[in-house]
Task: inverse folding
């Protein structure tokens, strides 16, 4: 496996591979890899000649009071996992190389990114779209895999690719969960044993929504309120949002009549966790 730190070298390498007729698969990450990331890498591995994984904790998508400095990092472990998974190139740029000191151009999606995490984290998706666009220009992928756990991010990236004509096929990777149902996340390591148990309320609330829909309840307000009650029984759980949106347009819905994405963000202690599910009536 080759490790590349220079954005210029990454782009030159990618262009040489393209000229040689190679297809490039790409999995962008912020590192501290877990089984969820590895499932994305596995999905990409079978669909390309050369597999590139990037590790870059993108400062542009963190707000001023968020956990940029504390975000978990373990490059040696990540490197070992990438070798085991058959990654060909590990792109590991430094922040100074990715953003000019006087950078003034950004990529901003203005519809799908408005609510959910976009509402509670202003500027987050501008940072996400910008760094993904930059990574696409540097890595030149034919296919890129994004996880369904970050449901809004996935749909925003798909829209960006469509609207800006990036020649990249986006592949969706299913959510990977712990045996007890907790969605895998690098931020799970922030949780102590009690908080880890409390964090199960996210999946339990989603399961409750699914069962209510299966029983015939179509009222978003009714289902949301019952999810709030369930999460409210967990000491220390603070709801950021519980939102129901059309799975394609991301527009809020009041009645579940077609495929509906229910997404929630909940703080357990100081840790903000997200999860989601598509409800199909």
Result:
């Amino acid at each position: 496996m080759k490790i590349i730190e220079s954005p210029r070298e990454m782009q030159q390498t990618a262009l040489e591979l393209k000229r040689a007729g190679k297809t490039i698969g790409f999995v962008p990450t912020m590192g501290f890899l877990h089984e969820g990331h590895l499932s994305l890498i596995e999905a990409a591995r079978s669909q390309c000649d050369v597999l590139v994984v990037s590790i870059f904790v993108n400062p542009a998508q963190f707000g001023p009071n968020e956990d940029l400095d504390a975000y978990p990092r373990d490059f040696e472990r990540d490197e070992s996992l990438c070798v085991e998974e058959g990654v060909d190139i590990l792109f590991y740029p430094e922040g100074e190389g990715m953003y000019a000191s006087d950078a003034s151009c950004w990529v901003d999606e203005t519809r799908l990114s408005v609510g959910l995490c976009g509402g509670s984290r202003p500027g987050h998706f501008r940072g996400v779209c910008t760094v993904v666009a930059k990574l696409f220009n540097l890595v030149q992928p034919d296919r890129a895999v994004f996880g369904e756990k970050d449901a809004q991010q996935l749909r925003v990236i798909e829209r960006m690719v469509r609207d800006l004509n990036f020649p990249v096929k986006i592949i969706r990777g299913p959510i990977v969960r712990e045996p007890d149902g907790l969605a895998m996340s690098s931020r799970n390591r922030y949780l102590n044993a009690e908080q880890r148990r409390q964090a199960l309320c996210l999946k339990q609330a989603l399961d409750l929504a699914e069962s209510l829909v299966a029983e015939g309840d179509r009222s978003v307000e009714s289902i949301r309120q019952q999810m709030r009650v369930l999460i409210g029984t967990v000491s220390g759980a603070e709801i950021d949002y519980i939102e129901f949106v059309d799975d394609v347009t991301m527009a809020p819905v009041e009645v579940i009549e077609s495929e509906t994405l229910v997404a929630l963000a909940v703080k357990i202690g100081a840790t903000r966790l997200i999860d989601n599910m598509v409800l199909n009536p």
In short: The mean pLDDT is 96.
